[in-house]
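Lab notebook, bench 4. We co-purified these components, and the gel suggests they stay together. Before we commit to crystallization screens, I want a quick structural picture of the whole thing.
Request: model the full complex, all chains together.
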Amino acid sequence: MGVEMTEATGGIDFEDEESGVVKKFMFVNRKAPYGTIYALEALEVVLISAAFDQDVSLAFLDDGVYQIVKGQHTKAIDVKNFSPTYRALEGYDIEKLYVEKESLDQRGLTEADLLVDVQVMSSADMAKMMAEQDIVISF
Amino acid sequence: MPTIEVNGKSYETDEEGYLINLGEWNEDVGAYLAIEEKVEMTPSHWEVVNFLREYYNDYQIAPAIRVLTKAIGKKLGAEKGNSKYLYELFPYGPAKQACKIAGLPKPTGCI
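Here is the predicted assembly.
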């Protein structure tokens, strides 16, 4: 895990942290919320990242858009429905949530199906947004 | 797994004393956990504990201290939404101690 994190974060060193440099972090969510641990782990990392005063954004693509769909009922699969936690992000000053329009369209979803306020953008704009980041971490 | 006993009923906790099943919590359990934390509960303490339980109910997480402070300020007023006030109530860390008494898990991002 330690080694992976270092690679994924592009080798952030302590000097950066001490000098108070703010970097643009994007956490990319591509997987369905349940069935794997990725979505929940990403959310935990995002919440922890809020403590470091960085410029944090989240992107939802592919099946990742299901993470923020309204009305998740998880009782039958016996796991906790953690989707209400996305609504807590605002309180953590994480307000940049981007959703790829194509991913919504392919799944017959619209912005009205989502449980948080997001910015919907085309695949091309999403690519631009990613290119502007200092660090992109994919889950 | 460690257990605590309140009014003849036993409750599971983790190694650090956090209640395992949130749903089992009641005020007596909260009062017991407070004694273990050496916190003398007053209405001001219960106000924070109840606030945390509501927060958890809404968001399914225990908030980080910074977030808790801000949210309390919004709901209960600026004179309560600051770390001085909260640390006076819960000297060993408001998020950590108050969460434990409220029967919540340890806050995410509590490092």
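The longest helix of chain B spans residues 43-59. Worth comparing against the SEC data before the next meeting. Residues 18 and 100 of chain B are 5 Å apart (CA to CA).
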